[in-house]
Specification:
This protein is mainly α and about 90 residues long. The N and C termini lie far apart (about 30 Å). It has one domain. It contains 5 helices and no strands. The mean pLDDT is about 80.
Length: about 90
């Protein structure tokens, strides 16, 4: 992401990165699958990001968002396919 990193640290860079994530979520992921709960993707991404450097508990993330665990797992695979998350093996 050279354009985002070229900006000086602060609000401008954060806004660019936020816009990039929004763009990927709204365009690329939607093209990968027909998503019933599209509005749940940004909160799911935030929930997973909050669990960085921890064991990912998909059930807990789904419960917080009021999603079915299976749907949350499918959406996490889409976020991986869009290179927005990367799961490290245990």
């Amino acid at each position: 992401m050279p354009l985002g990193l070229a900006r000086s640290a602060g609000a401008g860079r954060n806004r660019w990165l936020d816009d990039y994530v929004t763009l990927v979520l709204e365009r690329a992921v939607r093209k990968l699958a027909r998503i019933r709960l599209r509005e749940k993707l940004p909160p799911l991404l935030r929930q997973v990001a909050a669990q960085t450097a921890q064991v990912l508990n998909v059930n807990a993330a789904a419960l917080v968002l009021g999603m079915d665990r299976t749907v949350a797992s499918d959406y996490l695979r889409l976020l991986e396919a869009a290179f927005l998350i990367y799961r490290l093996p245990a």
